[in-house]
Automatic annotation (TrEMBL):
The keyword Hydrolase applies. Residues 954-1129 form the DNA2/NAM7 helicase-like C-terminal domain. This is DUF4011 domain-containing protein. Keywords: ATP-binding, Helicase, Hydrolase, Nucleotide-binding. Residues 236-326 form the DNA2/NAM7 helicase helicase domain.
Amino acid sequence: MIAGKSIALGQVLDSRMESNNVMSERIKRLQRVDHFLFEERGSTDLHIGWPFVQGKFKDGTLVRCPLLFFPVSIAQVNNDWMLGLREDAGVTFNKSFLLAYAYFNQITLDEDLLDFSFEDWDSDSTVFRTQLYQLLKDKLELNFNTELFIDELVAFKEYKKSEFDEAHQQGALKLYSEAVLGIFPQAGSQLLPDYTALIKQGSYNNLEHLFTSKLNLEDNQRQVREENTFTPLAIDEWQEHAVQKLKLGNSIVIQGPPGTGKSQLISNVISDAIATGKKVLLVCQKRVALDVVHERLSQLGLKNFIGLVHDFRNDRKTIYTTIAAQVDAIQDFKNQNRGIDAIQVERSFNQLSRTIETLSDTLEEYRTALFHDEECGLSAKELYLTSSPKMESINVKQEYAFFDFKVLPAFATILKRYVRYANRFEDDTYAWKNRNSFAHLSFPYLKIIHDCIDELIEFKKQFEKESHATLGTVMKVETAETLLESVGMLDEMRRQLSSDDVYHFFNHMLAERDDDTSLLWLDNLRLRCMNCFDGDGVEHSLPSDQLAKFQAVLYKRMEARKRSFIRLLQWEWFSEDKFWLKRVMVANELDYNRKGFQRLEARLDNRLNLEHHLTALRAASWLKNTPTAIDSTLLLNWFESQKSAIRTKLLFNSVRELKSYANPSKISRYEFFQWMDQLKEMLQKIPVRRHQWEQHLSGSQVRNLLSDESQAALLKETLQHDFEDLVAFDALKNSLSVNEKAVIEKLWQAVEQWDVAKFEALLQNSLRLEWLNHLETKYPVLRLISTQQFADMEHELMEAVTEKQKLSKQLLIVRARERVYEHIEFNRLNNPITYRDLEHQVTKKKKIWPLRKVISTFHHELFDLMPCWMASPESVSAIFPLEEIFDLVIFDEASQCFAERGIPALARGKQVMVAGDAQQLQPSDLYQTRWDWESDLPDTEVASLLDLAGRYLPSIHLQGHYRSKSNDLIEFSNKHFYKGRLKMLPDFNDLANDEPAIEVVPVNGIWEQQTNLAEAEMVVERVLVLQKTKPEKSLAVITFNATQQQLIYDKLEKAFADEKITWPHHLLVKNIENVQGDERDIVIFSIAYAPDKKGIMHLQFGSLSQAGGENRLNVAITRARERIVIVTSIEPEMLQVDEVKNEGPRLLRKYLEYAGMVASRQQRIALEDAQTEHAREWYLSAKLHSEFVRTTPFPFSDMVVTHLDQRKALVLTDDEFYRNALSAKAAHVYQPLLLEKKGWRFIRLFSRNYWLDKNKVLFDLQKLANHKAS
C-alpha cells in the first residue's frame, strides 16, 4: 500500500479451498457495505488501518486503534479480489485517536497533525516508517519498537477487556504491525474541533441562544416583493410560503412528508439565494438528497456554480477542476451576458412582478373582504348564501348597524318570544291590548287591579246618581270629564257675564247661529262708530230726521259766501234758516264764522256717518238696546257689553255638553252662576279618582269601562289568566332599544300578522341584504367577482406567474455569471488580480492545499465563483471555517441526523432552514458508535436535529403530495401519520385504470435464520419479469431486515448473471433502515416474517418493534410512484399484536389489511370526511349538492361532477379550500394550474354569483355535466 501497489487478496471462488471461499464471502460483504455507504452518504470509508496503537492513556482509558488509514477499494478482477489505494484520497492520521490522545492526556495537540498530508512522503516502506517516527517522536509519546520495521504483519490478536487491561500499563502506548481492512468512518472526528472552538468562543450560551440568533425577531409582517423573488422551478402554495418566510429573514423548520416537493423547495430557495447575491450551504448526510438538488440546479445551468462535496478528500480534485473552469470561463460569462438582452429580461421580469403584485393584492383584498367577519359577525360569503335579493325585505338602513350577527341571535330569540306574545296580546280584540305597562308589577298587583276595576264601576254609578240629583238629569262620567276639560271656559263665561245687561244680551242672542253673531263684524262697527267722534267730533243737537235738511241749509250758507258778497248779504237778510243755523252753531259751541261753518260741516258729516252705522246696528235683530243718544261713552259701553255677550255665547256653544244640561234663558245670572259652581264642585271629584285608576288602567281602558261597565268582567277574567305573561311581555318591551322597537314595527307593517317564521325570515334577509350593501360599499372589490374583469384578472395572473418563472431561470443564470466577474480587481497594468492566487492553488500539481485551507484563504473570491455549496455535516466541519460565512444554511433529511452532528454546520449560517419529516426515520448509529449521555434536559432527550430545531424555530408543513400517481399509495400514511394533512390529486386519466395500485402476492414462506427463502425467490422472479416487460420502469426491493436484503441481493446477482443481464442502474435493494430519500416507479416488499418450521409465528419484528419503529414502515410504504407489490407469507390476522408495546407491529397489520382491501378493489380512495369549521349554510357546496354534483374527496376542489357514477369534472367554490389557501396566488394560480396539469376539467363558482343568479349557476353546472357526458 505504501508503495502504491495493488494486492490480490484471494480468489472469488476456489472449489478446492473452503477458507478462501469464506474469506471471499466476507470481502464481498465488505465491498457491498462500502458501496452502500457510498450510495447512502457519498463517502468512502473503506480503509486499511495500520499500525495499531495499543495501551492506555494517562487516565487509564484503554486504547486499541489504527494510527494511520490507507484509503482503499476492493475490485473483482476476473476471479480475483484486488485491493488497491483509492486515487487522490491520501493516507491520513487517525484523527479520532489524535483528538482522544490530546483530550485524555490533557495536552495541546499540534493542529498540523490533524490535516497532515503524506502526499510527498517516500514510497519505500522503510523510509516511510522512519519519516513517521521522525514526525511523531517529539509530538506523541509512542513506543516505536523494532518490530514495526520488520516487513511482516502481525496477526490481529483478539482480547477480552480484562486481559487487555492487565496486559498494558497506564500511560504507555505501543505500536504494533497489525492491520485491519474494514469500514472506518472518519467524518465524525471533524466535529470535535468545532465543539471545542464553540465552547472556547462562548458565542452561544446555550442551544436556545444558538437558534434564536438565527431568528428575525423584528416585525416581519411586511410583504415580500415579487421582484425580489426568484423561483425558476414549479412551486406550490406551501413551498412559496416557506420561501417568503425565509425572504423575511426568518429561520424555519420545514416538515416535508414524502413526495411533498422538499427537494423542489430547496432548489428554489438556493436559486433565489444565488440570484439575490447570497451564499448558501446545503447540508445533508444522505448522498441521494444532495444529488437530487444538485441535478435540478444543474438543469438550470448552475452546475459549475455549486461545490458538491460528498467526501472532502475524494472530491477535492473535482472541486478544484470546477473552480479552475469557472475562472477560465470569466470572459465567456461576460460574452454570454452581453448576448442576452439582460436589461430587457430584467425589465420584463419587473413588469411581470408588478402585474403579479397588483393582481394578487386585488384578489387578496377580495378574499379578505369575502371572509372577514369582524364587521358584522358574519362574513360576506355567509351573507350571500343566507340571503336573497329576490325575497321580501324591509328598509333597515337606519337600524342595521345596531344589529350585527354577534348580537342578532340574542335579539332573534327575543323577537320570537315577542311575536308569540304579540300574537296573543296585540290583537285589536284583546281586552288588555291598550294597557299600562305591567313590566314592573308583582303578583299582588293582580288583586289591586281587580279592586281598581270594581272601584271605577262603583264611582261611575255614584256619580251618575249625584249628577241626576244636582242637574236634574244623568251625566255620564265621560261627559263630566269632557266638561272638566272646559272648566276654564266656565270661569271665562263667568268673567264675561259681568253684568245683568251682558247676561240679558247673552240670552237674547243665544238662539242665534254663531256665524250670525259675528264678533268681528261688531268690533268693526265699533271702530267705525268711535272713529266718528275723533277730530271735530259729532253734531249732537239735531234730531236724526233733520240732519239732511240742515246739511242743505249749511251748504247754501257756505255757497253764498263763496259766490259774492251780495249773495251773502241777501242770505243773511232774507233767509228764513239763518236763525236755525245760528241756534245749531250755538248748541255746538261754534263761532258764527267761516271756520265755525267748516267745523260744523265736519261734525255734521261725522253725525251722518254715525247715524249710518247705528242704522246697521239696529238692523241686527240679535243686538238689543242699541243706544239712541249721541254719547261716545255710552256707545262704547254698549259695544263692550255686546262683545262680552258674544264671547259668552261662543264659550257656551263650544262646550256642547253644557247645552244639554243648562238653560240660561230661564234663570237669572245669579242662578246661572250658582249652577256652574255646583257643576264644578261635582267635576272636581273626577281627576283624583282618574289619577288613581290610571295607576293601574290605561286611559282607554278607563274610558271603555266608564262607557261600558260590562267590560269589567272580561277584563278581570282575562287578567286573571294572562297576568304573568303580560308582565313578562311588557318587561320584554321595556328591554327593547329604540332601534329594536323600530325594526319590530317595520316587520309588523310588512308582515301584518304575528307569524314567528315570517318575522324571523324577513328580519334575517333584510339585515343580511343591508349589511351586504354596507360591505359592498366599503369593499367594492366584492362586486368584482360578478364581472368579466375578474376572469380576465385570474387569467392574466396565471400567465404572469408562468412567464415570471421562465424569466427567473434566465435572470438566475445572468446574475450567477455576473457575480463571477463584477468584483474583479485589476493592477496598474490592467491585469486582473482577483482569482490569480486561487487559480494557482487549484491547478498546481504538487503540494496541493487541502480543501479547507483553500476555502479559508480564498472564501470571498471562491463564493463569487461558487455561491452554493453542498456537503455532509462532517464535511462542513472539515472544510469550512467556524464562522457565519454563509447567509443561509439549509439542512435536508434532518430527521435522520443526530442533533450534535448538525449544530456545527448551523453555526456557520446567519439564517437556517431545517428540513425533514418527523414521521420518517430517526437518526441511526449504523456503522458508528454514539455516546449516550444520561440527562433529563429536554434538549438532550431529542435525538434528531429536526426535533431540536422544532423546539426553537417556527415550522411550516408542506402538504401537496406529488409522488404517488394513485391515492391508494399514500392514503394509509396520510391517515395514520399525517392526520389527513397531505393533499394528493390523482391524474384524471389514471382514474380509468382499474388495476389496483397495490398487489399482494402470497407465498408459503418459512422464517429461518432471519430470512424467508420463498419470498426471496418470488421477489427475484417478479424483478426479472418486470425487467423484461417494463424495462422503462425503475424498481426497488425493500425488505424489513438486513438479512433478507442480503439474501435477495445475492439471488438477484446470481439471477442476472445466469440471465447474462447487467444489474439495472435503477434497481435498488434496501431495507427499511436505509431506503429513506429513494423513490421508484414500482416497489416490491418482502415482508419476510413468517411462521417457523414448526408453524409458530414469533412476534419479533426487529427494528419495527422498537419505539418509533412505525416511522420505518411509513418510509417504506411511501417510496412507490406507481405501484406496490407485497410479497408476504402471512395474513394480517396472523399478527396478534394487541399486547405489543410499540405501534410498529400494529400498524404493519393495519397496512396489510389495507393493502388487501385495495388489491381486492374493496377500497379505492377512502378519505375521511373533513371536519367542517362552519355551519352548513356557510358552504356553497351544500347549496349545489345534487344528484350529479357531490362533495369530492379530492383536494384542491370542493365538489365533483359525475355522470353514471363516473367522475367527470371538478367544482371549485369559495368554501374551505379557497379560504384556507395561503395566498391569492395559491387559489387562483397554483391550484388551477395543478388541475390543468392533472387533466381535470373544472369550473369555479362563487357565492355572490349564486346569490345574484342561482339559476345561471345551476345551469352552468348542468352544462358542464352534459358536456362531459356527451
